[in-house]
Write a structure and sequence with these properties.
single chain; mainly alpha; two-stranded antiparallel ribbon; 2% strand
Length: 179
């Protein structure tokens, strides 16, 4: 088990110094109150305690206002990164985020158009590379490529996907596509 020595040292030191500061700050007013009480000047006791309490209340309001303003300003800064690293989130959350990122990457990959003409070339069927057919007839390959360029279909073929059309589509909203 890891013991946070620095955190213990820091909090202990901070507590001791805070108590020392509060003690030193209370010495002066308590001395004034005691002298006023000894000299039977009760009116001065109210002035001293009232002024110190008023100062304390103003200091608390200023401190709270600064805390609120700083937190509001920091919250208004947009994050340019998502906390998905191991140190940022817990293990189950990290697993879910990674699964969804993989799913998004797969969907993005599947959504790209493909060149279906590569399937018709001899190299895709196991032929030679660099524009040569297995017989060495480069003219035949050139003729196949010229025929493919004249095709009315785009090089990625006919696009079909399962799902629904956009509900905001002007022509056919919520149309179900065949799988």
């Amino acid at each position: 088990m890891h013991i946070p020595f620095f955190r213990i040292f820091y909090s202990t030191t901070f507590t001791i110094l805070t108590l020392l500061l509060v003690g030193l700050l209370l010495i002066t007013p308590s001395e004034q109150v005691w002298r006023s009480f000894r000299n039977k000047q009760i009116f001065n006791i109210f002035f001293i305690t009232g002024s110190h309490l008023l100062t304390l209340i103003v200091a608390i309001f200023i401190y709270a206002g600064r805390l609120f303003a700083n937190r509001k300003a920091l919250a208004a800064i947009p994050k340019s990164w998502s906390p998905i690293e191991k140190a940022d989130v817990e293990k189950p959350v990290r697993r879910i985020v990674r699964e969804n990122l993989k799913r998004s990457a797969l969907i993005a990959f599947e959504a790209h158009p493909r060149n279906l003409q590569d399937d018709a070339t001899p190299t895709a069927r196991g032929g030679a590379a660099h524009g040569e057919t297995p017989d060495g007839d480069a003219a035949q390959l050139q003729a196949q490529n010229d025929e493919a360029d004249d095709s009315p279909l785009p090089i990625w073929g006919k696009i079909r996907h399962p799902g629904w059309s956009s509900p905001s589509s002007s022509d056919l909203p919520n149309l179900h596509y065949a799988p």
